[in-house]
Design brief:
The complex is a heterodimer.
Chain A lengths: L5 H9 L20 E4 L3 H14 L4 E4 L15 E2 L6 H15 L1 H5 L10 E5 L2 H16 L5 E4 H7 L15 E5 L3 E2 L2 H14 L3 E3 L4 E7 L2 E7 L2 E4 L3 E3 L5 H6 L7 E11 L9 E4 L4 E5 L5 E11 L7 H14 L8 E12 L5 E4 L5 E5 L5 H18 L33
Parallel strand pairs in A: 1-2, 1-12, 2-8, 4-14, 12-19
Antiparallel strand pairs in A: 3-7, 4-6, 5-6, 9-10, 10-11, 13-16, 13-17, 14-15, 15-16, 18-19
Helix pairs in contact in A: 2-7, 2-10, 3-10
Chain B lengths: L2 E4 L3 E4 L4 E5 L13 H8 L8 E7 L7 E7 L5 E6 L10
Antiparallel strand pairs in B: 1-2, 3-4, 4-5, 5-6
Classes of the chains: A alpha/beta, B mainly beta.
Chain lengths: 418, 93
């Protein structure tokens, strides 16, 4: 099997790079699988990979309506962090952070994970106190966190306006040094290649149109390429979780909303960390190509359109210029939108459902990318054993019925407010 | 930019409005007689229709009245907009 290495690069280079093979097969769907995962984004592919690697389940298919990583995996702002307040979230995302740290080696695929740090800015004493609390909570959970004063922030981000003469002066911030960014497409491709090598069938252009149920639970999926039988079905289709779950008669505490992101034209290296603005809503980093990658809030109303509206773009640009006035002459190169599963408490839903054999991985709000490895890890465990992993026991759908919502922001059951 | 035709103020930009979520969610009328399943349905579960969606908006920078819209969530087309009435009529706003 082709293993990527410096030696293979040299070998193929000598032959003019004409000998590279496709990174994964394009098989016809079989009639029967031990497990079927719907959705060929990062989460679905990671789940298939860990099903094969950790649980020895190789007769697995990933069904994708379009192409791999064409949904939110290819639309996010690539930020990876685990700076959460609540224990259940912190432990889960920190497990993901640890997987990120070894991911390129594990997959034999460079996901370009760059631990350049994530800084949350505080603009008032009160906000800084809240960050102190969150930082302490993170440290109690074994996560790195550093409280910064204004001088620390100025030293870390030299180009930023930290003068006191602005509407939202920078008081300080909370830094997670191990946070950073990763190459989003490479995550999907790396997991796809590694899963394929373990025998997983990745089937693109295969839309699931129905879920067949029997007395015991589920018996398979109807697809645009015929019926595929399986006693285990995992949904990893964030954005359309409601529609897929409805095929099995399950109602979800989810609304779909559009989240936009955008990039500026590329410039020379100017920002070597991830900065989030705490007064409005902005997160910005610089890609390896030189583009400033930015995002903000969801547009704030139900939407299945993968495009948004100008008010959010204007808000994001305004926040950016409040921090970095020197970027005022940069032009926005591209904007796009993705459809988020927004849950009623702002935390993801990953685990079992009321239907035996049907598993749900969704509700990622707009924090799904960083969770990709951890999500695959615990979802594979849940699908293989029928029981949630200790790390997603609190993230299951039944938390809403048990009154155990995980509301990180304290925003209440208003999906558009998270 | 959504252009919302407020029945009181005329067509206004979406930035004057605040979103209020799905319109077809009614609080259980008799809390003491309501079981857990009905509370969960009211609090958490949503149709999340992919197509026409009935929803609430408040004209916070205008007349401050609550409005109900029927909007296509794929094309973002606003099909109708009217004063909020309870209960929501079967055929929508």
């Amino acid at each position: 099997m082709n293993r990527y290495s410096f030696a293979s690069l040299v070998r193929h280079g000598i032959m003019g790079h004409r000998g590279w093979k496709p990174a994964w097969r394009d098989p016809e769907p079989k009639t029967n699988y031990d497990a079927v995962i719907v959705g060929g984004g990062g989460h679905g592919l990671a789940s298939a990979y860990y099903l094969a690697k950790n649980h020895g389940l190789n007769n697995v298919a990933v069904l994708e309506k379009g192409w791999l990583g064409g949904g939110n995996t290819g639309r996010n702002t690539t930020i990876v962090r685990s700076n959460y307040l609540l224990d259940s979230n912190a432990r889960f995302y920190e497990h993901g952070m640890k997987l990120w740290e070894g991911l390129s080696r594990d997959l034999n695929f460079n996901v370009m994970f760059s631990q350049r740090g994530v800084i949350n800015l505080a603009h008032s004493k009160g906000q800084l106190e809240a960050f102190r609390r969150r930082g302490n909570a993170m440290r109690l959970n074994g996560i790195d966190a550093e409280l910064l004063n204004r001088d620390d922030v100025a030293a870390l981000v030299p180009g930023m306006d930290v003068s006191g003469d602005v509407r939202f002066p920078v008081e300080g911030g909370l830094l997670q040094p191990r946070g950073g960014t990763a190459r989003h497409d490479a995550v999907a491709w790396g997991y796809a290649r590694a899963a394929d090598r373990r025998g997983v069938d990745i089937i693109q252009n295969c839309e699931v149109t129905g879920i067949r149920r029997d007395h015991a639970g589920v018996s398979g999926v109807e697809t645009s390429r015929g019926f595929i039988a399986s006693k285990r079905i995992g949904l990893a289709v964030a954005g359309h979780s409601t529609q897929l779950a409805a095929m099995a008669g399950v109602r979800l505490p989810i609304e779909s909303h559009v989240l936009q992101a955008m990039v500026s034209e590329p410039v020379k290296p100017v920002l070597d960390t991830v900065v989030t603005f705490g007064a409005g809503h902005l997160y910005v980093s610089q890609s390896d190509k030189g583009e400033l990658v930015m995002g903000g809030d969801i547009d704030g109303y139900n939407s299945f359109a993968q495009r948004g509206n100008l008010p959010v773009i204007e808000h994001v640009a305004a926040c950016l210029l409040a921090l970095f006035p020197q970027f005022s002459r940069l032009r926005i190169l591209r904007t796009w939108g993705g459809i988020m599963d927004m849950t009623m408490d702002g935390s993801p839903i990953i685990g079992t459902t009321p239907v035996p054999g049907l598993f749900l991985n969704g509700g990622w709000c707009y924090g799904g990318f960083k969770a990709t490895p951890a999500s695959g890890w615990v979802f594979a465990h849940t699908m293989a054993t029928g029981q949630p992993h200790a790390l997603n026991a609190d993230l299951c759908l039944d938390r809403f019925h048990r009154g155990r919502a995980l509301d990180e922001k304290g925003a209440g059951p208003k999906p558009w407010a998270h | 930019m959504l252009l919302i035709d407020c029945p009181h103020c005329g067509p206004r930009a979406q930035t004057e409005f605040s979103y209020g979520g799905a319109a077809n969610v009614a609080r259980p009328p008799a809390p003491e007689e309501t079981d857990d399943a009905a509370w969960i349905e009211y609090l958490y579960l949503r149709d999340n229709a992919k197509g026409q969606h009935d929803e609430l908006w408040q004209h916070i920078f205008g007349c401050r009245r609550w409005l109900q819209l029927r909007r296509d969530v794929i094309s973002h087309e606003i099909i109708s907009c009217s004063e909020l009435r309870r209960p929501l009529a079967e055929d929508g706003p």
